[in-house]
Amino acid sequence: MSNELQYLVDAWEQSVRSLSDVCAGLTEGQWNRATECPGWSIRDVVSHVIGVELELLGDPRPIHNLPSDLAHVRPDDEFSRYCEIPVDVRRCHTAAEMTGELTWVIGRRLRMLRDSDCAPETEVRGMMGRSTPYKHLLRSRTFDVWAHEQDVRRATGRPGNLDSPAAQVSRDFLLAQLPRVVAEDARIAPGHTVAFDVHGQLEFMRTVTVGPNGQAGIGEQVALAPLVTLSTDWETFARLMCGRIRPATADLKIEGDRVAAERVLAEIAVTL
């Protein structure tokens, strides 16, 4: 296994075991506690992690009809309905069933990952049966597990792992989305730069500059006169990009063109 893949596997393992540890002492009632992930409780978040990893193990997906009254699931959104099925079938599971299945899935999946002889660019089967390079699958799974670990930590008042290897993988995963957010979604004009100044457990400065052709690039250089500078802490930045909080309620400092800033912030959530 290459060093790159080993790092991703180790980061995934640390985060999913951390999620398991946080869930281990939860009471039956606490499993029903709402998280910032729209429509999902702690049980639902963990059910999602279990369901995806079982799918990647090759287990058959459950045959299940979703109820029609799930407000967070849009009838025309195939992906949200796809994600909801393994979640809804576990809504009657007990705390012991949830923790037991999570532990069992972690062990099986880790053996699969450690035994894999895939190269980073090997095409493998991902979610919904779509083909994706192996390193991209590992990176997205590490991000997804870490994001949901943070959902559970916030819901239980047990912060942590904000500077872990999985947090660093997640930072890079989110930063890679910013050029599209700025240039395509927020429609910032060519020649302008948007700066993101983030402090806290993971500190970084990134600038997204839109080129003459309308394509944006991201870098670490300090812009002399950015159109907009958005400053916040790492946890808030991650929550914004994961769609966990609205910009209007975030602890965020805006400098520069406020209209442009509002356009960027309106599009900054890249996942839910």
CATH topology of the largest domain: Four Helix Bundle (Hemerythrin (Met), subunit A)
Tell me how many strands there are: 7
Report low-confidence residues grouped into runs of 5 or more.
none
Shape field: globular
Order the strands across the largest sheet as they lie in space: 5-4-3-6-7
Q: Radius of gyration in whole Å, from Cα? A: 19 Å
- State which percent range the strand residues make up: 5-15%
Helix content class: 40-55%
Q: So how many helices?
A: 9
CATH classification class of the largest domain: Mainly Alpha
What is the average of the pLDDT values? 94
Largest pleated sheet: 5 strands, mixed
Number of domains: 2
CATH H-level homologous superfamily name of the largest domain: dinb family like domain
Keywords: Isomerase
Pfam families: MDMPI_C, MDMPI_N
Protein name: Maleylpyruvate isomerase family mycothiol-dependent enzyme
Domain Mycothiol-dependent maleylpyruvate isomerase metal-binding: 13-153
List key phrases describing it:
two-stranded antiparallel ribbon, 7 strands, five-stranded mixed beta sheet, 272 residues, Nonspecific Lipid-transfer Protein, Chain A, globular, single chain, alpha+beta, Four Helix Bundle (Hemerythrin (Met), subunit A)
Task: Describe the protein in words.
The chain has helices at residues 3-24, 42-57, 78-88, 95-115, 134-156, 165-175, 178-185, 234-241, 258-266; strands at residues 123-125, 131-133, 193-199, 204-210, 216-219, 228-233, 253-256. The chain is an alpha+beta fold and 272 residues long. The strands form two sheets. It has a five-stranded mixed beta sheet. Strands 1-2 form a two-stranded antiparallel ribbon. Helix 1 (3-24) runs antiparallel to helix 4 (95-115) and helix 2 crosses helix 3 (78-88). The mean pLDDT is 94. Residues 13-153 form the Mycothiol-dependent maleylpyruvate isomerase metal-binding domain.
